[in-house]
Specification:
With 371 residues, this protein is α+β, with helices and mostly antiparallel strands. The chain is 43% helix and 21% strand. It is built from 7 helices and 11 strands. It has a 6-stranded antiparallel β-sheet, with no helix packed on it. The chain has a 5-stranded antiparallel β-sheet with strand order 1-2-3-8-7. A hairpin with a 5-residue loop joins β5 and β6. The longest helix is centred in the C-terminal third of the chain and has 30 residues. It is elongated, with a radius of gyration of 26 Å. The two termini are 23 Å apart. This is Cytochrome b561 and DOMON domain-containing protein. It is found in: Membrane. It comes from Rhynchospora pubera. One of its GO terms (molecular function) is metal ion binding. Keywords: Electron transport, Iron, Membrane, Metal-binding, Signal, Transmembrane, Transmembrane helix, Transport.
Length: 371
């Protein structure tokens, strides 16, 4: 019965965790609300095409061919206190493309600039450079109902066949030199300006590889493994082996999820990311400790064996080290990618509930042991 209550508590916390981290701010703009755009953008008209450009980030793109060699664009996106951008690429890659990027600074002043995207490094993406020939005095940025609007006109016979979208980390605005930090999320879409067909970004889930890595590691090393350890310590019964099967099952699932997360983590791009080496090293340490625990299960002596007490000491302390390093590395990883506060809050609530439950159960355990 006690184990069932703990499982139900975990499930409720898990569901709350998923709902919290998936909560995103939605744009108030849509293709049916053109009145605000007309009042904000002088060259906008009802003849513009309107597309859901990047659904997971609520990007809306309005565009039109307004002259023989002139194309006009209006990009709208939710204001997350970060930069938003649209790039024009010939092959779908960010490198050697050009982008229009805009944001509102802390004094509510709007900034919009063209950037040449040399490569992933910030220094290789200088402001006020690029291959787009902009119509003079056509660029503007505006804010309406917590939505940012980037408007500009480009002189070209035919737009590039690929569009690149990007959004910066919330709260991390460019400094006074206007150089951009690495984006928080991005998407690429194949775009036919003549037909208005866009493929790619519209179907993107926005759940990046880094977030998949984070979620799997948090569920495995950060939640299931600590809960499995709690089951072994506080629900042990010599009369019924259910606690043992529950402990092993939870640890196996936790190990599998954590391992999957680590595999994804090794495939992440670490260029320009501070503290990545420390995070990677700690991840390897946790993986090694987890493997030792799995191997220890196969070499577990019977209870009457004299070596059993030494095995218990090693098994318990290696488990504690794995849990401690795992939790620390989760917070380090979240800070490296500058994840949203909701992730910290969600995991912090789950971890706090585990600590409170463990403290209460430990008190009861010691009181019974003293009887």
């Amino acid at each position: 019965m006690k184990l069932s209550v703990s499982v139900l508590l975990f499930l409720s916390l898990f569901v709350s965790f998923l709902f919290t981290i998936r909560a995103d701010t939605k744009s108030t703009d849509s293709c049916s609300s053109n009145e605000a755009v007309s009042s904000l953008v002088p060259f906008y008209s009802s003849s513009f095409h309107c597309l859901s450009a990047w659904s997971s980030q609520s990007f809306i793109l309005r565009y039109a061919r307004t002259d023989t060699n002139k194309w006009s664009y209006v990009l709208s996106a939710p204001d997350t206190n970060a930069y938003v951008g649209i790039g024009f690429s010939h092959d779908g890659d960010m490198e050697e493309s050009s982008a229009m990027v805009g944001w509102f600074d802390n004094s509510s002043k709007g900034v919009i600039k063209q950037y040449y995207l040399g490569d992933m490094e910030s220094s290789a993406c200088p402001p006020d450079q690029g291959n787009l020939t902009l119509v003079k005095n056509s660029t503007l940025i505006a804010m309406h109902s917590s939505t940012i609007y980037l408007a500009f006109e480009v002189i070209t016979d035919q737009p590039t066949p690929y569009l690149i979208y990007a959004v910066g980390h919330p709260g991390d605005l460019p400094s006074s030199n206007y150089y951009l930090d690495e984006h928080h999320d991005r998407a690429t879409a194949k775009f036919d300006a003549n037909s208005g067909i866009i493929n790619g970004a519209g179907s993107s889930s926005g759940f990046t590889k880094a977030r998949k890595h984070s979620l799997l590691v948090i569920l495995g090393w950060g939640l299931l493994i600590p809960i499995g350890a709690m089951v072994a310590r506080y629900f042990k019964s010599h009369d019924h082996p259910h606690w043992f099967y529950g402990h092993v099952s939870i640890q196996m699932v936790g190990f599998a999820l954590g391992l999957a997360g680590i595999v994804i983590g090794f495939d992440l791009d670490s260029s320009g990311v501070d503290r990545y080496d420390t995070h990677k090293a700690l991840g390897i340490v946790v993986l090694v400790l987890g493997c030792l625990q799995a191997m220890a299960l196969l070499a577990r002596p019977v209870s009457t064996n004299k070596l059993r007490k030494y095995w218990n000491v090693l098994h318990h302390n290696i488990g504690r080290l794995a849990i401690g390093f795992g939790i620390a590395n989760i917070f380090l990883g979240l800070s490296i990618v500058d994840e949203k506060k909701s992730w910290y809050i969600a995991y912090g609530v789950c971890l706090g509930a585990w600590v409170v439950a463990a403290a209460w159960l430990e008190t009861r355990y010691r009181m019974k042991s003293g009887d």
